[in-house]
Design goal:
291 residues, alpha/beta, nine-stranded mixed β-sheet, 10 helices, 14% strand, globular
Length: 291
């Protein structure tokens, strides 16, 4: 009985990692429902709304700069070309960021085109920023306001089928990303997440103290056990599409000291549903709804 009690207390302490927020409100791509995604204005607005983690995506340019972008190309839903035209779906994949210099990426706007799926998103001029520029702005804001430091949840946009075409192979990608993180001295507040387990495996091997999050697609019906076997280690966070989350899944993760933070939870009913399952946070386009 005493052994069981000690184990229960130990388990509770491990799941409630003091280095992570008790309930993590992650602003998806900053706050995509309100501001242009993966831009500095989106990150600053998310800070104003009180997020505890800024979720973002990273890609690599031709001249080896780490910038924010959900795709390794200029998505037709958000992009205006240098001559003021909207990018078409047929043309978007030809605008390969890995084949552009950082300076070239700055000639494309990603904030003026009305987003077809987020009508309340504010329209403003914006470009895809450097990761280090985002970090500098966020850290300066927190210092100025005297507010608690947020975490950064950075997704590596890699895929086995597009290595060395749209992005570097995993090890090179991770090394470039970590160079920025190390230079900013924010390692203890960074989570690296990915659907591509290869980048997480590189991190676990080369940077074992870094927090990792395993992203799971909604169509991926494999079990938690199968995912952990494929990954090869226990991540800090298990981050499935919220449609996959059940109380049983959350309990299984907590038994392994893994936090559960689902994506993308965008209305009050879904937020309440996720809280009822016992998740440790949510990723949302509308962090204003959580508060």
């Amino acid at each position: 009985m005493l052994v069981a009690l000690i184990f229960a207390c130990h388990a509770s302490k491990k799941v409630s990692d003091p280095l992570l927020p008790a309930f993590d409100i992650e602003g998806h791509r900053g706050c995509r429902g309100l501001m242009p995604e993966n831009t500095i204005p989106a990150m600053m607005k998310a800070l104003e709304l009180g997020v505890t983690t800024l979720e973002m995506d990273a890609v690599i340019t031709k001249d080896k700069q780490v910038i924010l972008s959900h795709e390794p190309f200029f998505n037709h839903e958000i992009t205006t070309t240098p001559d003021g035209k909207y990018v078409t779906e047929q043309d978007e994949r030809n605008l390969n960021i890995y084949h552009m210099t950082y300076a070239q990426t700055q000639t494309y706007d990603v904030g003026l085109k009305p987003h077809p799926r987020f009508p309340n998103q504010r329209r403003l001029k914006a470009t895809k920023p450097l990761l280090r520029e985002v970090i500098d702005n966020v850290e300066a804001y927190q210092k100025l306001k005297g507010v608690q430091h947020v975490f950064y949840n950075i997704e590596t946009k890699t895929d086995p089928g597009t290595d060395n075409t749209y992005h570097p192979a995993p090890e090179e990608f991770v090394n470039m990303l970590m160079k920025v993180v190390n230079a900013a001295k924010i390692n203890n507040r960074v989570i690296i997440q990915s659907f591509d387990f290869r980048t997480l495996q590189v991190l676990h091997k080369k940077y074992p103290t870094m927090k990792t999050a395993a992203l799971i697609e909604d169509f991926d019906k494999r079990s938690l056990e199968e995912h952990l076997k494929d990954l090869g280690f226990v991540p800090t966070i298990y981050s499935p599409a919220y449609s996959l989350v059940t109380k049983e899944l959350v309990e299984k993760c907590h038994e392994r000291y893994i936090k559960v933070i689902p994506w993308t939870v965008n209305d009050k009913d879904a937020i309440a549903q996720m809280k009822a399952t016992g998740v440790d946070g949510i990723i949302t386009d509308y962090p204003d709804l959580v508060k």
